[in-house]
Description:
By secondary structure, the protein is of the alpha+beta class. It has 5 helices and 13 strands. Helices cover 48% and strands 26% of the residues. The strands form 2 sheets. It has a 6-stranded antiparallel beta barrel. The radius of gyration is 51 Å and the shape is rod-shaped.
Amino acid sequence: MSRKIIGSIVALLIILGIGAYQYIDLGRQLPEGLIQANGRIEGDTIIIASKQPGKVIAVNAREGDDVLTDQVLIELDDQVARARVAEARAARAAAIAQSEQCQAEYEVLCEEVPYSIAAATANVTATSALLSQAVSEEQQAKTERDRYWTLAESHSVGWETAEQADLRWRQAQDQVTAASAALEQARETLNLALLGPGRITAKAAQVAALEAATEAADARLEETQSVLADLTIESPASGVVTMRLADLGEIVNAGTPLLEVVNLDRLYLKVYIPEIDVGKVRLGLPAQVYIDAFPDTPFAAEVRSIASRAEFTPKEIQTPDERVKLVYAVELYFHENPEHRLTPGIPADAVIRWQEDIPWAKPRW
């Protein structure tokens, strides 16, 4: 066989090989308008810490455990906190009792003071009238005494009659003195009654002070109850415990991390988009994610984060040749996680659609 024929055969084989490669490569590529990427599922990590210092007396979750919202994870010793709650509750009860008693006294004063002023005023009026009457009677008795005394001196009447008139005058004087004293006493009583509004004001201030003390007792009770509640540490969200940092019997300070939980309702797939394609990706674009466990079930996601700086592809991604390419990290947040089938660490493939009129297609490799 001549060299010319052999060369022609070799050239034909090369052309066929290139064509086959291009055919296979085109078959693996997604239609224009879709971008394929892969990565691992991650989640928003919640660092669970104690607001209060204390001794760990119970650890109810370990690494890898599924936890639910409000599930008790860590318990700290609460003996002292319970005693303080009981003390605050007793102080609050005492403050309420004092406030109620003072309020009752204030209400009595509000009814009693106007009545006392009215009664004292009437008494002053009455005793003033009695004094006026007594003064008139004393003057009349004095006039009669003087007249009878003059008649007795002229022997027109007997001395006995004059002495009786003198006695009546002295008795009238005593009545004036008694009426004057009664009027003075009535005026003092009125003055005391007129202090009633001031007493009402003072009592009202005392009521306000005791109400403030009750509010302070309420706040103190609420504070101690909050401290007690903080010693029972619950999960703020459903998720998976990824790290346990506290052991039974350990003394922890306020703010010390105790557990790390990944929120299963806030998962995202972190993928890396080549520099040449990142210009097509924008926030809000829809995506479909596939995992090996459910190859025919796409999970809806959305582009919510695009890195502002390029980086080299992480070494755990694809081949060494791919790792030297500049890429941008993109986070695809899942719309939902039905039955919590998605968990952190699972590898997944994603398809991002940047043209709305392009139908979805599964990832191709």
